[in-house]
Design a protein that fits this description.
single chain; 141 residues; mainly alpha; 8 helices
């Protein structure tokens, strides 16, 4: 999908940031992306949907188990689950792994456009940062 890394910084013209500030800046971008995407995705959702997603994010095992039984009963054989498991190194029964997978699947079911929303918001942030690149670099010198 996308990576917030040195290549991202180069793409937006901030590869000259001091090393000690790169990680902080990337974390700031991630936090801003998460906030904006969450806001856009929640528009038009019911309170019940938002509560269900929040319970999955908060790793409430009963909600996760129930949701997986209903929408992805064979999740252990899903390539997406297997990729998340391999990347995380978590045991297949770990609730954190199940929560990560369930959150991704929940978005596919309830907001199938979520990847487009993420891409759109990321492009918006890139434009904003690029427009202010000189100011940002001046502050670091």
């Amino acid at each position: 999908m996308f990576q917030l890394d040195d290549k991202f910084l180069a793409d937006i013209g901030l590869d000259a940031l001091p090393e000690d500030q790169k990680k902080l800046f990337l974390q700031h971008i991630y936090d801003e992306l998460e906030l904006r995407v969450g806001t856009k995705l929640s528009d038009g959702m019911s309170d019940a949907q938002l509560e269900e997603f929040e319970a999955i994010i908060d790793r409430k095992s009963d909600v996760i188990t129930s949701w997986l039984e209903r929408y992805a009963p064979d999740y252990g054989n899903d390539q997406s689950f297997q990729k998340i498991q391999q990347a995380s190194g978590l045991d297949v029964n770990d609730i954190a792994l199940k929560a990560e997978y369930a959150a991704t699947k929940w978005l596919e079911v309830n907001r199938p456009d979520y990847r487009d929303v993420v891409a759109s918001v990321l492009e918006e942030i890139k434009r904003e940062v690029s427009a202010n690149r000189d100011k940002l670099l001046d502050k670091t010198n």
